[in-house]
Each structure stands twice: as structure tokens, then as C-alpha cells.
Design goal:
Blueprint lengths: L3 E3 L12 E6 L11 E7 L5 H8 L18 E7 L2 E5 L10 H17 L3 E9 L6 H10 L6 E6 L6 H18 L4 E4 L8 H11 L12 E3 L1
């Protein structure tokens, strides 16, 4: 596969055409289509909604809240008639009754286990709390499915460049040993860091052609 070198962002992106379609709270409500989906999952307050907004070049596509656990349903964002981004319920520190927290978790697990349209899973982890027990549970449970996973170490701007690279290196070594094939990168919605790298993964999973940027914005090595 050819290698690409990118600057910070593309000039244009098919992802910016994404728009909200529906929210569902059960498998029975999942929309029927023959297209492909890429899902985003992560612990509450890890920056999942911000990452989706950043990648789609939209400020309010996914709901952003300072209160963990506000993503309670499966949210569908449509790019075109055959491609969708999926925002899954956050897991972790939501201040809600245990029964409701279990309901959200079951919805997430049921979708990941049953959705044949799912082409890949983006796992959102706060770089300062990466590979928490809940993150590990998700990796260990989903990895045997054989479907690809890509990890965004979000809020990379909260650490120095050296410290963030150290975390990234440890994450890469850990994944290579325990979850071969799972990729990982640094990401910051605030600093717009890691957009091109993440888009390359999403474009591949969504069967999209990478856009041709002008003014030397992308070039093959």
C-alpha cells in the first residue's frame, strides 16, 4: 500500500458531509441499509464527541458536554447513501443509576456483536488514562471478531510533545504484543492534531478515495 505524507488537514473531506439521521435505543430500531459503518466508542469524557466533530469539520454534529455519559443512545451520522459514522454510548463514569448504566453497556455490546455493516471500530482513550480496565474489557471482547480497531489517544495537547510520544510508543509496543493489528495514534481536537492520520483509516474502512489536496498538501513517499 502506498505511503502518504500529510500536513495538518485536508482542504476538503467527504466526512464533512455527515449529517444526523437518527438515534436508537434498541437493536430493533437500527436502520436497515446495505452500506458500511464505522463506529466510535470510548469512556465517558474521553473526547469522543469532540473527535467526531473535529473529523467531520463540524462544531455541533455530535453532542459535546462537560458532563460524562451524555451519549446514551446509538447516534447515526450519514455521509452518503452507503456510508455512516456511528456514535456509541459512552462507558465509565456516568453519574446515573446502575441499571441505566448496564442498559447503555448492553446496547453498545449488542450493536458491536450483531451489526454486520460495521467495518471498523475507533476506540477513544484519554492519553492520560489510556488502557483503563474498561478500555481493556472492550479490546479483549471485540478483538476476536477480527474487525479492525484504531485507537485515538485524545487530548494529546494535555501532555508535552515528549511525554505524549512516550505514551504512544508504549501503547504501540503493548498492542503489538497483545493485540497485533490494532493501530494507535495521537490526537487532539483542540490543536487539530492527528486529523489526517485518522482520516486515512476512516477512508479505508469506508471504502472512500483519499481526496487530492492541492498546493503540495499530500505527496506519496
Amino acid at each position: 500500500m502506498p505511503q502518504f505524507k500529510f500536513c495538518a488537514t485536508y482542504v476538503m473531506s467527504a466526512l464533512q458531509d455527515a449529517f444526523f439521521v437518527t438515534s436508537v435505543k434498541s437493536l430493533q430500531q437500527l436502520p436497515a441499509h446495505v452500506g458500511v459503518e464505522v463506529a466510535f466508542a470510548g469512556r465517558s469524557n474521553a473526547g469522543k464527541s469532540s473527535a467526531i466533530n473535529t473529523l467531520t469539520r463540524q462544531r455541533r454534529l455530535a453532542y459535546v458536554s462537560k458532563t460524562p455519559g451524555r451519549t446514551q443512545l446509538i447516534n447515526f451520522f450519514q455521509i452518503d447513501e452507503r456510508r455512516f459514522l456511528i456514535d456509541l454510548p459512552g462507558y465509565g463514569y456516568a453519574e446515573v443509576p446502575l441499571a441505566l448504566k448496564k442498559e447503555w453497556q448492553q446496547l453498545l455490546v449488542s450493536y458491536l456483536a450483531a451489526r454486520t455493516q460495521l467495518n471498523g471500530l475507533v476506540v477513544i482513550m484519554d492519553i492520560r488514562q489510556a488502557f483503563s480496565p474498561l478500555d481493556m474489557q472492550l479490546l479483549e471482547w471485540f478483538y476476536p471478531s477480527g474487525k479492525p480497531m484504531h485507537i485515538l489517544l485524545t487530548k494529546a495537547d494535555k501532555l508535552s510533545r515528549g511525554a505524549s510520544l512516550t505514551v504512544l510508543g508504549k501503547a504501540q509496543n503493548f498492542l503489538q504484543t497483545n493485540f497485533p493489528g490494532v493501530s494507535v495514534q495521537l490526537f487532539s481536537s483542540l490543536k487539530k492534531q492527528g486529523i489526517a492520520e485518522a482520516e486515512t483509516v476512516l477512508y479505508r474502512w469506508l471504502n472512500l478515495t483519499l481526496p487530492q489536496a492541492d498546493s503540495g498538501r499530500s505527496s506519496r513517499k
